[in-house]
Amino acid sequence: QGVRHVICDSLDEQDLDVLAEATVLMPLVTGGSGLGQALPAQYRAQGWLDTITEPGRLSPASGGALVLSGSCSRATLAQVADFLVKHPNGSFALDPLALAKDEQQQTHALAFARQRLSEQAPVLLYASADPDKVNDAQQALGVERAGALVEEALSQLAVTLVNEGVGRLLVAGGETSGAVVSALGITTLRIGEQIDPGVPWTQAPLAGRDAPLSLALKSGNFGGVDFFTRAFEVLA
Predict the structure, then answer these.
(1) pLDDT-derived band at 101, boundaries 50, 70, 90
(2) Contact residues for 145 (Cβ-Cβ < 8 A; gap 6+)
(3) What strands, in cross-sheet order, belong to the sheet with 190-196?
(4) In the 8-state DSSP scheme, what is residue 201?
(5) Are 68 and 110 a contacting pair, CB within 8 Å?
(6) Nearby residues of 96 by Cβ (< 8 Å), 6 or more positions away
(7) Residue ranges covered by each domain of the chain
(8) Which of 90, 111, 177, 218 has the fewest Cβ atoms nearer than 10 Å?
């Protein structure tokens, strides 16, 4: 009837069921998690979802373990520090200033990751840094370019290393996760077991691979201090 915006509220879950039925065919809807809880029943009614007998059960994980971190949040910095303690020789730090200069640092990061992965050891490639270092890079390069350099480098590293056999990939940072998923061409994720509240393992099919890619994507402030190491234990 020409109405462009409708805002609805609810008193109980039955109201959410009604809203889900009313909005299931709409191309764009936004709402809280309660609406998300009600929508799957409507998806099944439309024939869009198959019945899964063991929800959350993913295929066995395989391939090398790689962590990519572009987030500079307090939680992620603590997770990086915890990984460095547990794997003193397992990480490579990326610097936006060096990335802006030439491709040498990215080449070194790739060589480092290949060596670690050949030893069947987890590897962390990160641009996470304390506020002073982040500010220096942003002052020199500009906020947008500094962030774009990091996201581009990490997404290119992800594509190369996944093509070479990485099968377990953890990405920290919302923008970084988006860049990596886009670079890998991932359009579908199967949700699996939760690592920490709000962060599950997922799996995505990739062309040319028999086994799906196991993928965990987290915003900066999600996850406990030991997230980077415990995540792979949960997946195993």
Answers:
(1) confident
(2) 100
(3) 91-93, 123-126, 64-69, 166-172, 213-218, 199-204, 190-196
(4) E
(5) no
(6) 127, 137, 141, 146, 149, 150
(7) 1-51, 64-235
(8) 111
pTM for this model (two decimals): 0.79
User: Distance between CA atoms of 197 and 73, rounded to whole angstroms?
Assistant: 17
Which residue reads 């402030």 in tokens? 221
What residue type is assigned to position 2 of the chain? G
| Nearest CA-CA partner of 189 in 6, 33, 32, 58 | 58
The one-letter amino acid at 148: A
| Fold designation for 64-235 | Molybdenum Cofactor Biosythetic Enzyme; Chain A (3.40.980)
Residue 199, beta-bridge partner list: 196
Residue that has been written with the tokens 């590897």 in this structure: 123
d(CA 222, CA 220) in angstroms, rounded, equals 6
The tens digit of pLDDT for each residue in 140-173 reads 778 788 888 889 999 999 999 999 999 999 999 9
